[in-house]
Amino acid sequence: MKKYQLGEFEEIVLLTIGVLFNEAYGVSIKNEIQTRLSRTVSMGALHTALVRLEDKGYIKTFDGEATEERMGRPKKYFQITALGKKAMAYSKATRDELWNAIPKVVFKLEPLAGR
Amino acid sequence: MRLFRWYARPSLVNHIEGDLIEDYQQRLKTSGPLKANLGFAKDVLLLFRPGIVRPIFEFNSANNLPMFRSYFKIAWRNLLKNRGYSSINIVGLAAGMTVATLIGLWIADELSFDSYFDNHARIAEVMLDQTDKGIVYTGPTIASPVEEPLRSKFGGDFKAIALCSYANETIVAFGDKKLVMPARWVQADFPEMFTLHMLAGTRQALKDPSTILLSRSVAKALFGDADPMNKMVRADNRHDLTVGGVFEDLPQNTTFANTKMLMPWHNPQNWNFTVTDWDNHSCLLFVQLADHANLEQVSQKIRSLPTPHIKDWKEEITLFAFDRLHLYGSEQLNGEANNAHIQFVWLFGTIGGFVLLLACINFMNLSTARSESRAKEVGIRKTIGSVRGQLVGQFLTESIVVVLAAFVLSLVLTQLTLPFFNTLANKQTTIPWTSPAFWMTALGFALFTGLISGSYPAFYLSAFNPARVLKGAVKTGRLALLPRKVLVVVQFTVSVTLIICTVVVFKQVEFAKSRMAGFSRDGLITVYINTPELNTHFDMIANEAMRTGAIENVARTSQSPAHFGNNNSVEWRGKDPNLVIFFNNVAVTPTFGKTVGWKIKEGRDFHAHTPDSTSVLLNEAAIKVMGFKDPIGETIVFWDKPYTVAGVVHDMITQSPYEPVQPAIFLPDGWMGVILMKLNPALTVQEAIAKLEPVFKKNNPSGPFEFSFVDQAFGHKFASEERIGKLAAFFTILAVFISCLGLFGLASFVAAQRTKEIGIRKVLGASVTNLWQMLSKDFVVLVLISCAISIPLSVWLMGDWLEHYDYRTSITWHVLAGSAFGAFAITLLTVSFQAIRAAVSNPVKSLRSE
What we know:
- The complex is a heterodimer.
- By secondary structure, chain A is an alpha+beta fold.
- Chain A contains six helices and two strands.
- Chain A has a two-stranded antiparallel ribbon.
- Chain A starts with 7 loop residues before the first helix and ends with a helix.
- Chain A: This is Helix-turn-helix transcriptional regulator.
- Chain A: Residues 22-89 form the Transcription regulator PadR N-terminal domain.
């Protein structure tokens, strides 16, 4: 049984929130992912992931200031919760474990693996 | 943007919108307005996904239980707070549901008639179509020779074929135990075809012509706990039969409910067995269709089977589905059934529906009336944060709680009234406590009623605007009162119509009962000659019985004066050869006239002591048909034998009390199977019977002394009408009760609402009478309107019903006026109680309260 539910895109969003630290809100997360990973992110996909993460308790939100370019709509900032950190750590640990378990020889034979 | 606002979850709207706008601004800077617009639209469309779209119902909190508990708590408190209204509501609804349940059970019983037999869907009865001079008679009684060609020529279409006689009262004796029980002669396939539940022996037992099958009750009565198998019993003191099996008694709702014993067709004692004439119609024939056979097709194939054998009229046979037998009637004249039950199913179904409708109307009326007083509650609830859905839930819960309470009460009431209802309806229904179908229907029905009757207050009230309600601005105008008034009118229209119908039914029965009989039925008893001894020892019995002083007169006759048989073989001088007319024909001994006490109009009675075997007596109706001016001495021919008319008797009512008297002919010879005795009026019935019994016991040792009263037998002819009348009375009383309950509730509510108005009026000098008039007027007007609707309605309905009877009462104005006045009086009484209470109350009290 999976201990922590965390999808691939969710993980990226969660990591990005961590990267942005106190500056993580909708548009900034989107831009950060787009520049760092050079993949386009739709607003819909992002917000769905955010809602889901919040439902799972991995992130929490607090309301921020409203700026002129948002036509008075408040920002909503995201922060990783302790549970979120655990989930990230768990996810990383499992991956590392898997990495370590791969025999060295696999990497050496990599050119052949593509056949 | 608006699209997004419409579909998005409220809690997310603001900041996502902010993000969208910020993104848009950025794109505007980097790639121009067109791309920015497109990107925005694309983003909005892509946002349309499960996590973001708001749910259809606002509340999907994981745990609804506390809310439901609150609903129930509030509902319960409301019920307790308004005890009066609640009990009116619950009792009224329970009464309606009880009626609906009783009628439902009755209808289910009627519709499941004969379903006890496993093969009921594949069984058909062979029916006879006789066409003679334009009249088509269809009936179940066929001639037994029909069976043989069915077997030999059309055997492939049938799985089984079984002839079956009518049920005859048969004496069955074992040792010194004797019983008179209805028995049928049946062919060997019969038990298998009707899948009798055998408790001992096999269904094949009747293949041996000397066996008998007994029902469990007969076996128990004859043998007690001993094993009945292979014991010898004696039937009618004539022949012995071996018990070949015991079957479970057939339930009341089957065609063969009265059949307690089955005897083999091929027994030589079965006189039906010896019949070879194609025009001797004496028995019934049932067939079970083969799996591939179609009823219509087979029916067409066999149709003309008997036609070539009958010269005098056209005779055909058809198949009639066994399932339809009970509901659609087996005997038809020109295609019109005369004993169909389906009309009763419709009639009672309609009445039941109406009574339940009345109860629901009550419920709705009271809830809407009370809704005004709960408007403030709604306002406050909304202000505190209730949403519409919750209010709807609250009101629906309340109505469902009431309905369920009523449902439980109605189950209790049904159980209590069921025995009474069963005697009324001549049924043996029980509540099927263990049947899931029953519970599903009943509960589903209850919930449906709750939802329907709770829907109006629920949706109407929850739509109130809280600010206006709390300011007291919501006033229901005239328009809001209209539906309530319409409902009251509907209620009373139904009630008054039912009252009138019931009165008319009873009047018709009374009318027919009070019809002059032309002879005296009092103290007449009949004994059927069912053993050889009763026949041979008749003179001895008659003499000894006269000597005891228990009877005044004794005679033998072919039929009980409670009902005569008839046929059309009477010929007379100048008879129109095309005329088909049925004469009651009764063979009597000379003392018959004195025994029944008939009145001779012309001529003479039969001679008692000199031979008089060529004289006949006719009744007035017969003379009218024959058209004789001076009938005495005329010759008439009955079954090819000439007789001389010796006298004319006054008409006697022996057939249907609703029809004109049929022509009758009294003959001095023929088979006479009934002993008719007039008890001595100086003795009580018990004394007379006690004296008679030893006489019969002595001269007829093989049979029990069984007799029946002519007046009782005749009384059965009113049974159907009396039953309808009693049931209708029962339903009417309930309908009126329910309507009055509703009216009572409504009146008390109106009075309560107008307390202040009444107080002010009193202060200004209005008298109690004035106030009483004011409060009652509204309701009285409504009842008058319903009377105006229901009088023509019921005149039309009952006129139709009375059409069935040739001898019928008329719907007089005083029946209508009486019924209307009755309804009116009841209304006034109900309303006045409340009105007067409100009117006499002290105005100081009602005005001081604020």
